[in-house]
Amino acid sequence: MNSGLRAPFDREFAIIQDDLLKMHQLIDEAVARSYASLAGRDPELARQVIDDDEIINQLRFKIEEASLALIATQQPTATDLRKVIAIMHIVVELERMGDHATGIATTVLLMGDEPSLKPLVDLSKMVELGREMLDDSIQALINQDTERAKKIAARDDEMDKYYRAIFDELVDIMARQPDAAPRATYLLWCAHNVERIGDRVTNIAERVVFVSTGDMQELNIKEQQI
Fold first, then answer.
1. Which residues are CB-contacts of 72 (< 8 A; sequence separation ≥ 6)?
2. Which of 74, 167, 83, 63 has the alpha carbon at shortest distance from 118?
3. If you average pLDDT over residues 121-138, what whole number do you get?
4. What is the phi/psi pair of residue 209, to 5°?
5. How far is residue 95's CA from residue 24's CA, in Å, rounded to a whole number?
6. How far apart are CA 152 and CA 216, in angstroms?
7. Where does residue 14 rank: exposed (0-12), middle (13-18), buried (19+ CB within 10 A)?
8. What confidence tens digit (pLDDT) does each residue in 44-56 have?
9. What does pTM read for this prediction?
10. Which among 13, 34, 68, 141 is most buried, taking Cβ atoms within 10 Å?
């Protein structure tokens, strides 16, 4: 891109990037609040997560439209084009994470006043890990840090181990206590939503590598999905 077009591109791209950071913040808050609504059995907080999901959706559309306009008007090439394309993919992943947070909040409403089946120790660790991975992935994108992105993707194995432990424990509880099956299922739904957040962060990390190298590669191939 010649120097005459550089300034307009940089200015418009900076706006898109700022909106991406805003979207990341909204997602982080949604995940944190959805878990808080589960841990505290707080239906009002759960409803807030569900209601706020529309804000996330609209911000996704805004970023996509601005990205398409930037491509059409500035015609970026090479790394600049890859950055814009990557952001268009990343906002989809972020929006889906918002859906996973909404899924947890919806489950909280379904649970009603039923007592908790078990302490949420591993699930709490999953949520904390997912939020850390997400923050690292966005920072890796901003700094075009390929090595950091690859390390983030590798941490998804840790997320899967937590999920497997929860899955096995809840299946065992259902086998021994059939009456507890509905409550166990609710927790499985919540754990699965958090595990999927880890998968989507891995997808973001792959886009970070794409921006820097131009090569799309799967960073964390899973042998088996639960």
1. none
2. 167
3. 96
4. -65, -40
5. 9
6. 16
7. exposed
8. 999 999 999 999 9
9. 0.91
10. 34
In angstroms, the CA 2 to CA 146 distance is 26
For the record, the structure tokens of 31 come out as 């995940």
Distance CA 220, CA 206 (A): 9
Q: Report the SS3 class of residue 144.
A: coil
What are the pLDDT digits (tens) for 149-179?
999 888 999 999 999 999 999 999 999 999 9
Question: In terms of C-beta density within 10 A (0-12 exposed, 13-18 middle, 19 or more buried), how is residue 138 classed?
Answer: buried
Region of residue 207 (phi > 0: left; psi between -120 and 50: alpha; otherwise: beta) = alpha
3-213: which CATH topology? Methane Monooxygenase Hydroxylase; Chain G, domain 1 (1.20.58)
Encoding tokens for residue 112? 């009603």
Distance CA(75)–CA(7), nearest Å, equals: 13
Rounded Cα gap, residues 154 and 137, in angstroms: 12
Q: What is the DSSP string of 39-106?
A: HTT-HHHHHHHHHHHHHHHHHHHHHHHHHHHHHHHH---HHHHHHHHHHHHHHHHHHHHHHHHHHHHH
